[in-house]
Amino acid sequence: MKLTKIMLCAAVAGAMTLVASAATTNNNYVVLEKLTITGQAVVNQTGQSNNGKETKNTPTKFKYTVKDIISLLNASPAFKTYLAYQTSSNYTQIPSGAYLAVDVYDSYVWVVLKNGTPLCPLEGYDAVEGNYRYFGETGWDNMSAKYSYNNSTRSGSEQDALSEFYLNFDDYVALSATTINATATAGLKQSAGKASSGTQKLTQKLKFQGTGDVHFQGVYGSGAMKASGSGSGTVATTYFPLYNW
To answer: Are 137 and 124 in contact (CB under 8 A)?
Structure first.
């Protein structure tokens, strides 16, 4: 997802923190990391005319957390249709207490219920609309890694550099759309414990620092965005849990 840049006097400052969750998807070697997000966009518009005189608007301030992003999604008719299709009409709103989580391995942002049950990813096909929707997405372009592995215990560790790592949100509202796009080089550290009875503990730590673009009610801005987090859970040993083994 790419934003068209508009020349504005703008500043965006954001901070994002990823906190671990033990929830897992149907993929039994994936650990979801619960998202905690705080950010702020400040955009100044100039060049408007009032009786022939240029004026400067009061700065638009847009603060956002996970709660705000969920509210944006719940207010979106497009998301309501998508969620109903993804959950066989069991849900048309993200329920109270639910949260967002990132699956770094399969590159999905998930809605997770309060009890830790994954509800659906924020991207997927909507048969009603006939489109593939990207309400929330994550991923990267390239990876380089250093790793170690013990053949007898299946334990090991890995340190990855993920280039062009991104985390994006879009409410798909045409006139008052809000999009948040962050891109950076991220560092991902992983470790897998000793295998026992077909499972082993997987721990992930992610650090992210780069540039975030925000589109809020027709106004664009860009600035710094940071993220960090860790997560752990028990995963099956039927598949090597680290990327480059």
So the answer is: no
Task: Supply the Cα-derived Rg of the chain in whole angstroms.
Answer: 20
Strand partners, 10: 43
Amino acid at 92: T
How far lies 138's CA from each of 9, 96, 124, 149, 160, in Å? 28, 24, 13, 27, 16
Cα(206)–Cα(35) distance, integer angstroms: 12
Tokens of 175: 């006139």
- With beta carbons less than 8 A apart as the criterion, state whether 98 and 119 touch: yes
Task: Give the global pTM.
Answer: 0.76
pLDDT, one tens digit per residue, over 168-205 is: 888 888 766 778 887 777 888 888 889 888 888 888 87
Phi, psi of 78 (to 5 degrees): -65, -40
Question: Residue 222 corresponds to which tokens in the numbers above?
Answer: 């860009």
Classified as helix, coil or strand, 44 is strand
Q: Report the half-sphere exposure of 156 (CA within 13 A, side-chain side).
A: 19
For 130-161, the DSSP string reads TEEEESEEEE-SEEEEEEEE-TTT--EEEEEE
